[in-house]
Amino acid sequence: MLSIIVAASENNVIGRDGTLIWHLPSDLKRFKKLTMGKPMIMGRKTFQSLPGVLPGREHIVLTQNKQFNSPNEKVRVIHSLGEIEPFMASPSESFIIGGGELFRQILPYVDKIYLTRIHKSFEGDTFFPELSLEEFKPLEETEVMDEATGTRMTYIDYERIRPSLAPPLGQ
Length: 171
Hints:
Elements: E1 2-9, E2 13-15, H1 25-35, E3 40-43, H2 44-49, E4 59-62, E5 75-78, H3 85-89, E6 94-98, H4 100-106, E7 112-118, E8 126-127, E9 136-146, E10 151-160
Parallel strand pairs: 1-6, 1-7, 3-4, 3-6, 4-5
Antiparallel strand pairs: 2-8, 7-10, 9-10
């Protein structure tokens, strides 16, 4: 089972210059709670933007750069979308955590989306794709205020309601 976890602004911005624009402790706690003990699949730029290897989770890094590798045993490097297929077939949940290009390519194949909608607009260069309510329905919405920053946001959990017509990954 493949899920996306993402925080996006009202205008779908998720980053600028290879980094997140915001630091929201309550959203980071949610991210940790949902992803702990589960594989996280990400693009190379997202991996390089992390403060380090996050404990308690396997990191799978998708990159076209055949020279890229990591000395950390918790990091596995893959080079094609097709290598994600075993995670899709597994009954256990795996998370796609970014970035923008990987979200765009993988969206037709995911079963769930855990979206944190930040109730502000930002200038950015990396975006989350627009969701189709014909393909995904919101299961649960929780409005929250990040106490540390005073930022209003809504946690929205979506589930796929219509099978994707996308071809098999990697084709």
